[in-house]
Amino acid sequence: MKxxxxxxxxxxxxxxxxxxxxxxxxxxxxxxxxxxxxxxxLKGVSRTESLERILRLGHRENDFSPEEKEQLASKKNMHYVxxxxxxxxxxxxxxxxxxxSELKEAGYKIGMASASKNAQMVTxxxxxxxxxxxxxxxxxxxxxxxxxxxFLRAAKALxxxxxxxxxxxxxxxxxxxxxxxxxFAIGIGDRNVLTEADLVFTxxxxxxLANVLTRI
Length: 216
Known about the structure:
single chain, alpha/beta, 9 helices, six-stranded parallel sheet
């Protein structure tokens, strides 16, 4: 293996809660009730597709023009950006900084493949921009996860073949994207949910180079 490519939300930092709160607020404005269980189906999914799923949930998918849907997605994003504006290095998930340092010292290339259009901003606020050789976010791709485009773009930017990359994700759609890209898939979360992953750690604290290399 020559490179590790990380998702952002739920892997580097847990900004998923802020996405949930922002979508929940928009849903309430539209008379659509979102719970945490439904929110799980939005993880790793683009903003546009998440909005479509929410509108279908409330049987309102035909109530808005494309322009109005774009405005709704923008409204959600403005709320989300305001919520994450206070994120700091204290919000990096346990063990991640150490793992990134291990990879850097061992000579691996490090990339990010995020479904968030705010990936650069969040990574900067976390103080981790220096840790990544390249960041690909949703603003630069056509197809959202589970399509492999974002991971393939990251591998290309790192000048590494997909078969020599390890992808790290916490969402089902993300794991599917990694596998579709032809990469080794590491899941962070529940083994019973991330069933397509090649390797699963329940906690980011367990994500160490030694733990990974002994299992690949």
